[in-house]
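A quick aside before the break. I want you to see a complete sequence-to-structure record at least once, exactly as it would be stored in a machine-readable document. Don't worry about memorizing anything.
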Amino acid sequence: MSLAFVPVSTWDPAFVSEIRAHYPGSRGAPPGKKQAWRVEWGGEPIAWIGLGEPAFKLAARRALGISDARPLASTVCCFIYRRVRPEGPTGRDLLRAWHARAASDWSQRYGWSPVHWETLVLPSAVPGSVPGYCFRRAGYREIGATTGRGACRPEHGRRVWGPTQPKVVLYRGPLPRLSR
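That is the input. The structure line, written in C-alpha cells, reads:
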C-alpha cells in the first residue's frame, strides 16, 4: 500500500474536528499562511498534517544563534495528528515522505520553499516518555522549550498574554545548535 497526501482546506469540517479533538481548546488553524493535508494509506485516512506561519518569537530559537528570537525567513511550523494503528507507516515515515510534498505545495502556493521547520510539543499531552518522538526520528532536534507565556486573541481582539504550559521546541533545518 502507498501513502497519499491529499490537500484539504484548513476550514474543512473534518480537518477542524480532528484537530480540535487532538488539540483541546484549539479553534482550528491559526491566522496567516497555512496548508493542510489528509494522509491516506490504502485509501483510508490515517493522519492529518498541517503547516503554518511560526510563532512570532520563541526563546528557544536563541539556541540557533537567532538573537531576537524572531523566526528566520523561510520558516514554517508543522503539526501532525496520527491515528495510531498496529500496521501501516510510522509517524516518522509519514513525516519523511511528506516533507518534499509539503515544500513543493507551499512553494507553489506562496512562492517560497520552507528551509527552517519547527514544531512545538506539549510533553504532558503525549503518551510516550519522549515528546515529539516521531519528529525526532524524522530529523528534527530539540532546541529548547517555550517560556511558559503565550498570547491569545479572544474573539480576534487585542493580544492577551498569560501563562501556558511550556512546550518542547523541535527544529529541522541547516542551522546547528550552539553549544551552551
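Two observations worth writing down. The chain has one domain: 3-172. The domain at 3-172 is CATH 3.40.630.30 (Aminopeptidase). We'll return to this after the break.
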